[in-house]
Design a protein that fits this description.
By secondary structure, the chain is an alpha/beta fold. Helix content is 37%, strand content 16%. The longest helix is centred in the middle third of the chain and has 24 residues.
Length: 328
Amino acid sequence: MSKRTLLAGAALLSALALTACGTTEPAGSSQGAEPEGSAITVTDARGVEVEVPAGATEVVALEWVAVEHLQTVGIAPVGVADVEGYSSWAGTGAPLEGEPTDVGTRTEPSMDSIAALAPDLIVAVAGRDDASYSDLEAIAPVVVLAGADASDPLGAMLADLRLVAEATGTGDAAERAIEEFEAHLDELAGQVDEAGLTGTPLAHMDGYESGGQIEIRPYADGALLPAAFEEIGFENGWPGEGDPQYGLGITDVEGLTALDPESHILYMTVGDRDVFADQLTSNAIWTGLPSVQAGRVHRLPDGIWLFGGVDSVSAYLDAVLASLSPTP
């Protein structure tokens, strides 16, 4: 059975599970036809049942993936955590729609700014403490997304999209977007095969400098990016393990010697902060890596969020194929 078939099956099971755990009170269509005063009850990633006013459109998003999921189903959030950061880190893959109010940072949102918007719904991502959820719930219903799950990264991303759609009565829009995403993966898989790239190892990583030391964050099996590029025929060249939510590893430059020597190294940054092109050019371990010596290091375009939804993942895969395509 192909990976593409496995993803389709996982998506179907996820859809059935979400359908089973969500209810509408009183009975009505999940596409916005509920009578005035009705509510939709969903079970979020915490296992908490959340009652959301039917037809919620005034929504605050506290994580960038939540912004993207909302926009995917046709809802431009009225409030977004760190608008400027979103524009820099995610604005190319999934451009910000409307003119949302900035409600503070993703780690410390402003309760006053959120309350001033009088939202119908707040969408957050798992990882906050219980007290912060309680503060948010005093303002509006809070639906918490998983954000990521290294046991099934693509399935978790699609499940979060469907949860947002369930809470906002926009299921049809979500399913259309998922169908388009699946079709795009099929198209890209065909391109990978035609280019003779099937089985090529890729290794995506982030690089940081702190106190003169270089730290590398490789995307291990279980991270969203390897799951996506493996889905279209590539392999993950990084052999290490990652954390249980996001599948992210950590190593130093010397640790990169564990890379598959045939790997193409992929990375992304914003602006001029390019550890790989600057600080590492004088590092003998880095310059001695077979991938570096063979010129298989690719900086991808800025502005594609690496923990996003269907639009970001599609933009990322498009960028990967473009980087591996020989220049005419």
